Batch of 2 targets.
Target 1
Amino acid sequence: MADKNIPMSGFSSLAIHAGHQTDSAYSHLTPIYATSTFVYDNAEQGMRRFSGEEKGFIYSRWGNPTSAEAENKIAAMETFGLLNEMGEPLQVKGYLQASGMAAISTMLLSNLKAGDKILSHYSLYGGTQDIMNSLLPNLNMEGIIEDLRDLNKTEEALKKNPSIKLIYLETPANPTIQCVDIEEIAKLARKYGKLIACDNTFATPYLQQPFRYGVDFVVHSTTKFLNGHGTSIGGIFMGRDLNFMKGRAYKIYKLIGGNSNPFDAFMLINGMKTLELRMERHCHNAMEVAGFLESHRAVAKVNYNGLASHPDHYTAMKQMRHPGAMLSFELKGGLQSGINFMNRLKMCTRTVSLGTCDTLLSHPASMTHYSVPKEQREKYGITDGLIRMSVGMENIQDILVDLDQALQ
Ligand SMILES: Cc1ncc(COP(=O)(O)O)c(C=O)c1O
């Protein structure tokens, strides 16, 4: 049976077929290769595998066929329709990881050495922020935080700090939904000879392709929209410099040991096949919800990139197909109204995380940011009455009815 590595003109065709290799039993779906190791016919074959003379799997921390399908599918989606400098289809290499955090750590540790600095936007996922604050300083590396939406400030920071090795973007960012201009920052990265990485978790490759702008690395928490069903934790670290990815990055990936596992990879592969359909529905519902909340008397403010009132609306629309499915809104009554609202929800789900079929809501002040002093979290826009929402794929009228009764 032929493997389907033919050119495909549609994103869903690619999401469904890309990365699949026919196995010896001709399984329709790639099996869960629940094995730690792979065997050789003889010692010579083992030698050929270890020397790289013969392609093949050796040990599942180094690579596994189920994980490989997920890696190749995500790489195909992230490069869909993109060409390299020679006008050929762009190729990137990715390593599937145990979590988004493992992917970010492996990317950073493959690239940085003691004395290096990273430049990053101030709104980042809390865990990534903590890597900058708590992990990198111990290794004599430093994270410099700036408002990367201000290109003058970004350029100033690059001029002032020649030891910046890497610019790190997360756009849209968790939890503020702020966006930075990937194309403009990538231009600055090239001008000053810096590497640039982008966390594409909130957007997914269906909405946004950072490699289009010359970004060197893309990372994801696959736990979210890529998996789409909340069935596993995972991440991926991808890069466009194939020599680097197959050399230094592969070595660090193997040494850190943050590889994914075949069961989670299987769940991810099947979730990703419906990415386009899911994102279309998620984004449609998010726009409806944002409009509804904007005109609701109990709501003081709505943060959604799709609204013209959002400060990063232009940037989001420039680089994203749709503005995504994440939004936040501020209730008029502060902390208690946030708690009351959460308690009244009937259909929508009270939880953290994002990107599942159902609508998820969290109240950062009483949940994820409970232990962060009020003044500190308010600096980042996390007020007492802020609610974060991952808009799901239920029928829109049911989402709106639930929100409306909870807002009474
Ligand atoms: C934007 C972003 N990046 C990375 C992560 C970390 O992902 P994981 O929980 O899979 O380690 C998260 C988790 O919420 C996230 O929102």
Target 2
Amino acid sequence: MAAKCPKCGKTIPDDSVYCAYCGYGVAPSSRSVQVSVGGALMITAAGASLVLFILSFYALWNIYHWYPPYVAQIWFFYDQMLTAFSFIGFLSGLFTAALSLIRRSYKLTIASAVVCALSGCGVWIISMIIPNSSVTHSLLYYFLPLFVTPIAGTILILFKKAEFNTQPKNVGKH
Ligand SMILES: [Zn+2]
């Protein structure tokens, strides 16, 4: 089966994303919903990480000012880790989302998605070992939004490598 390029009229394979002759984007709809949903999940993970980063950063300030030295030492340790992990999760999640939504750099997209999921996993582990932790709290506020969400996003993006870097360099000319 073959199709005609609506821009230059040359015959091209009907599964083409871009015309090989003039670079015209003949099938922008061939971008799957899957990668877009993956990107949206990464935005969700980044947003949740940002919320946690703001909260844990604020908590650091409170611990420093209000807690007795011994208690502060323990809380400081955990809260510094939470602050660091959530910041990494926010940056990597946002980076993954941007790359996946514009379909650029498949390897970088997957690498930053894995970093986002790992930082979420770190947050989840800390939420379980922190003093007075609750399992339900850990699952709802840390495990689901910060670990399961980026894992799901990564899996959705993982099997759609062909959608990345398909645009030829001359595409701007049409
Ligand atoms: Zn063409």
